[in-house]
Specification:
alpha+beta; 5-stranded mixed beta sheet
Length: about 500
């Protein structure tokens, strides 16, 4: 009689072959029914996956492809499949602004997300979190951002006073300030990394970022669009992610218990995003309410309230802002260090406008050059290079300019078959010479102030300030204002 382990290997092989056959049929149908497009060549087995994974110039690679083959082209994917690459602003707006059903995350992306967030709650989570990330909610977190920023400034001032030749690891400090801010604002939990305390969460994020990819990891990433289960193979990064999951789940669990206790006793000492979620309806301010209303809030099963398990599911969505904000701020400081003129202009504006701490009104209305610096840095250094979606139904995508097909015919729209992977090139569009002019690759904040953007093709790009760093449409980044506010506060304080 065969043991489970003896029978598991042939079963795994059979499942893989079956999955391969099904995938080939699906991809073959998609490739033969979609509009035939021009594009670069690649291997039948891996397509261009290895080249894309290896390049440090992803945006430039796809910009060159668009110049050669047109604003929409195809690239070879795995096992003879074909992906449609989109660099046309009207097509991008159609894909990102269309209802959320038509273009969804690929199976590989959903497979990863479902390891962290219960898929049955995803739609509700976005609806609930949108209130937590409202302007009013973020404005309430401004003291948290200011406190963290001043801690960094004080530490840097002290270091420079003791030794003006000291070397400051800016990236490490930005990671610390981001972790403490997201901990307090998101979880009512102070990691105290700015005070020198060692944090397991910070160590785990650091280890994840510094870990080198092994050959098998690269192979699993390349093959994951067809075989998502390869991402479950054991490895150092998977262990780190599992540890992070345990850490944040414990923090969220403690937060939920504290929130329930405060609601039951008609008190509130917490003012974080996650405590807001666990408190119940967002249109209710807990502390001034009578015990009768609080009691109703505790017992309410309204759609805007979330259970303890659902609140714990949010840790990944909130914690995602930690490293992304740290990276964005580090890039902004690097660009300012490279451009002394821009740095002087920013410092002059801050000194002229601010007499003390920046207020919400200052940050949103009174510091145009600061806003320009942030926009320009986000344009050049988006966290995500592309947005990949899978067509859930046959669709006709409109174009902003005529396109030459593979057969030589010119069209003003393309047909995309169900199951086709569509790759929106947000990084390439952010930096394209065709849209932003000859200085598209340069850090020039004044482009946002001189009025020239509306005269360029960049004005055709929808999204925040004509850039796609935060995506666009129904799935635009919920943490956009949260991240931008943190960036503005820290740059203001740094330049004071």
């Amino acid at each position: 009689m065969l043991s489970f382990s003896e029978f598991q290997v042939p079963l795994l092989v059979f499942s893989s072959l079956l999955g391969l056959a099904v995938s080939l049929v699906i991809y073959h149908r998609s490739a033969t029914r979609s509009t035939p497009l021009r594009g670069p060549k690649g291997s039948w087995l891996f397509g261009l996956a290895r080249e894309i994974l290896a390049t440090d110039e992803h945006a430039l690679m796809f910009e060159n492809f668009a110049t050669q083959f047109g604003s929409i082209f195809q690239i070879p994917g795995l096992l003879g499949s074909v992906d449609v690459v989109v660099c046309d602003p009207r097509a991008v707006a159609h894909i990102l602004s269309k209802d959320t059903y038509s273009y969804q995350q690929t199976p590989a992306t959903r497979f990863i997300m479902q390891r962290f967030v219960d898929s049955s709650f995803i739609a509700q989570q976005r609806k609930v979190l949108s209130s937590a990330f409202s302007n009013a909610a973020i404005r309430d977190q401004l003291p948290v951002f200011l406190d963290s920023a001043y801690k960094v400034k004080t530490a840097w001032d002290q270091a420079l006073q003791s030794d003006d030749s000291v070397v400051i690891d800016v990236q490490q400090w930005m990671s610390r300030v981001s972790l403490d801010s997201i901990g307090i604002a998101g979880f009512s939990h102070d990691f105290e990394s700015l005070s020198g305390r060692t944090s397991q969460v910070a160590d785990a994020f650091g280890a994840f970022g510094s870990s080198t990819r092994a050959f098998l990891v690269d192979i699993s990433l390349i093959l994951s669009p067809i075989f998502p289960w390869l991402l479950e193979l054991p490895g150092r990064r998977k262990t780190i992610l599992k540890n992070l999951s345990v850490m944040f789940s414990q923090i969220a669990e403690d937060l939920v218990k504290k929130a329930k206790n405060e609601m039951e006793h008609d008190i509130s000492s917490m003012n974080s995003i996650m405590s807001t979620l666990s408190m119940g309806a967002f249109n209710i301010i807990i502390s001034p309410l009578s015990s009768f209303v609080v009691s109703l809030a505790v017992k309410s099963e309204a759609a805007s309230r979330m259970s303890s398990d659902e609140v714990m599911d949010q840790y990944l969505l909130v914690a995602a802002g930690y490293e992304t904000t740290a990276a964005s701020l580090t890039w902004a400081l690097i660009e300012l260090a490279r451009n002394q003129e821009a740095q002087n202009s920013l410092r002059a504006e801050v000194y002229q406008v601010l007499e003390g701490e920046p207020s919400w009104d200052h940050l949103t209305n009174s510091l145009p050059f600061l806003d320009a610096v942030i926009c320009e840095s986000l344009r050049l250094h988006p966290i995500s290079r592309e947005i990949v979606r899978e067509a859930q139904e046959n669709d006709t995508i409109p174009l902003s300019e005529p396109l030459t097909q593979a057969d030589g015919h010119t069209v003003d729209s393309i047909f995309v078959a169900r199951g086709t992977h569509v790759r929106v090139q947000n990084a390439s569009l952010n930096q394209s010479v065709a849209f932003w002019g000859e200085d598209a690759k340069d850090f020039r904040p004044t482009r946002w102030l001189d009025g020239n953007i509306v005269q360029q093709r960049a004005a055709e790009i929808q999204g925040h300030k004509h850039i796609l760093t935060f995506s666009d449409g129904p799935r635009t980044c919920l943490g956009k204002t949260f991240a931008i506010t943190q960036l503005k506060v820290r740059l203001c304080v740094c330049k004071q």
